[in-house]
Every structure is written in C-alpha cells, then in structure tokens.
Specification:
Structural class: mainly alpha
Strand content: 5-15%
Number of helices: 2
Strand order of the largest sheet: 3-4-5
Shape: elongated
Number of strands: 5
Distance between the termini: 57 Å
Radius of gyration: 29 Å
Number of domains: 1
C-alpha cells in the first residue's frame, strides 16, 4: 500500500512497511502454487505419453502378428521371406508398408500375386523420444541401453518389438516391458 498524506502534509510511515510484507507473502504463495501445479502437469503429460506408447506397441505387435499369419508363420524383415537370409530394416519397412505376396516379396501396388498388406502406412513415432526409426536386434537379448536415434527395437527371429527407452512409468513398470 502506498503511504497517504496526513492533514499536515506529512506522510504516515506506519503503512509503508505493510505493502512490502503483503507483496512478499503473495510472491511466496504464487511460487508455492506454481511448484505444486508443475508436477501435476508433468505427470499428466507422462501419463498421456505412456498411453500413446502402449497403443503404438499394441498396433505394431498386432500388425506383425497379422503379417506372420498371412506369410506362413514368417516374421517381417527377411528378404523374400527366407529366414536363412539376414533380415534388414529396409525389408521390414517394405514388407510392412507395401503389398506382399505369400513369400514376402513386395510391390508398391496391389496385384493378383501381391494381395497382402500393407500393414503400416508409416512407422509411428515413439511418444517419449519422438523417433520412428526401428533397429533390428539379431542377438538373443535386447540391448541393455537405448540405441541412439531409434524409437523401436525389433527382433525378427521372435517378432518381438519393444520401445527403445530406459526408465518407467509412475507405477514402476519399465517402458520396455509394455
């Protein structure tokens, strides 16, 4: 509060200090409110990202299962559907995003021979790291740490796909275990 003049044109100094105390109290209250609101906003965003991550993984896993069902039990990623050949990312993307025949050979357009798929229009972006790239894991175990620049890890031998993330959700479940 501002000081007010008295009848003798002198200022009443008793009221000057109370304005400073009120302003300090308001500043402390606003800082406390902002601090309390911040985790709730962050938790809501993390919860939404976790839900998106679960949805994307369910979709990817379902599409891989449909591919496998339509291709004599073979998972996508193997050139020409030949499991004796080394799988690669380009083949996985082509087999999931184009039309394919029963052996896994692809075509950009549907034909009488290429009547399966496409299963994906594009790879979804990982809701936490924003990457849509997929890395093929040819070893029996997934890497312990996330692979730089990738959103997903896929094991062609098993058909398993996981999020390329460390950490976990508020319930203690690791994102890789979604």
């Amino acid at each position: 509060m501002a000081a007010t003049p008295t009848s003798s044109n002198h200022y009443d100094t008793r009221r000057i200090g109370s304005g400073w105390l009120e302003a300090a109290a308001i500043a402390v209250a606003l800082a406390g409110a902002a601090w309390l609101a911040r985790p709730q906003t962050s938790d809501a965003a993390d919860h939404e990202a976790a839900a998106d991550l679960r949805d994307d993984l369910q979709f990817l896993r379902t599409q891989i299962m449909v591919y496998r069902a339509q291709h004599a039990g073979r998972n996508p990623g193997y050139p020409g559907g030949d499991e004796t050949r080394l799988p690669d990312v380009q083949t996985f993307i082509a087999q999931m995003s184009h039309y394919s025949d029963a052996e896994g050979n692809t075509s950009a357009t549907p034909t009488r021979r290429h009547g399966h798929g496409p299963y994906l229009h594009e790879m979804p972006a990982n809701a936490f790291n924003g990457h849509s790239e997929i890395v093929l894991v040819l070893e029996p175990d997934f890497p312990a740490e996330p692979v730089a620049g990738a959103g997903w890890l896929y094991q062609p031998s098993t058909g398993r796909v996981i999020a390329n993330l460390s950490g976990g959700d508020g319930q203690g479940k690791a994102y890789r275990d979604y």
